[in-house]
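stage 2 :: seqdesign
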């Protein structure tokens, strides 16, 4: 089967906590079909009355999200297809931004590219010490244009630019916490999950209107992101067609 058709997104509800889990066998990478379902699932969870808080996580042990699907990137041959693919990440970030529920991130392992963007779009992010980060887009001839605003909002311009410029270097979970991406880091998943459950249950029993208003305040100044991220998707959609990008993506896939 085509790798771009694999993977799944699930939503489970227990004790007022809505847990969204994404999975793809290629290190939890995100092809367009999965990104579309991801966005729809976040929107659904945000509107359900039986959900008081959302946990966003991925399956598996060591990789939170490998970012864009390189199989799909390699197949892009026209601007509209390229823009549509990168709009998938834009739509997920904007769904997190506009969701009226507080979203807790659970990052158990490495996050690359779009994966850093997804983690940045959560409202409070937990991680393990294995959750190093990298924005690898420049290394394949593109740039973290779509995820950049979300990353900059959490890491600041300095932190985001360090990741964007040194695109092949991993930064540790401790670095990510120091720069604001992670709120708390843990030695293992078991301890992290206990802490997530404690906070999630507290939030479930907090005033719904107060949580909604707080969420609005957290994201003040991002009201233009629908248009901004579409423009960024157009930049990436154009760059991915270049010979440089096509050669770099082919070389990466060949490793």
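stage 2 :: out
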């Amino acid at each position: 089967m085509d790798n771009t058709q694999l993977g799944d997104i699930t939503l489970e509800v227990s004790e007022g906590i809505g847990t969204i889990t994404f999975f793809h066998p290629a290190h939890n990478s995100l092809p367009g079909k999965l990104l579309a379902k991801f966005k729809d699932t976040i929107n659904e969870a945000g509107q359900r009355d039986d959900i008081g808080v959302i946990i966003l996580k991925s399956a598996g042990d060591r990789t939170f999200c490998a970012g864009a699907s390189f199989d799909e990137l390699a197949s892009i041959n026209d601007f509209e297809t390229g823009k549509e693919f990168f709009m998938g990440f834009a739509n997920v970030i904007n769904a997190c931004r506009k969701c009226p529920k507080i979203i807790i991130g659970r990052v158990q392992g490495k996050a690359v590219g779009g994966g850093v963007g997804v983690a940045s779009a959560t409202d409070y992010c937990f991680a393990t010490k294995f959750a190093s980060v990298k924005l690898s887009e420049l290394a394949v001839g593109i740039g973290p244009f779509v995820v950049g605003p979300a990353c900059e909002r959490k890491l600041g311009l300095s932190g985001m630019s360090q990741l964007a410029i040194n695109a092949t270097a991993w930064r540790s979970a401790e670095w990510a916490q120091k720069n604001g991406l992670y709120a708390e880091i843990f030695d293992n998943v078991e301890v992290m999950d206990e802490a997530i459950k404690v906070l999630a249950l507290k939030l479930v029993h907090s005033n719904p209107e107060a949580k909604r208003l707080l969420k609005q305040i957290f994201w003040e100044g991002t009201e233009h992101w629908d248009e901004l991220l579409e423009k960024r998707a157009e930049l990436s959609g154009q760059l991915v067609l270049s010979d440089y990008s096509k050669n770099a993506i082919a070389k990466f896939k060949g490793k």
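stage 3 :: structure notes
- The chain has a mean pLDDT of 95.
- The longest strand covers residues 8-14.
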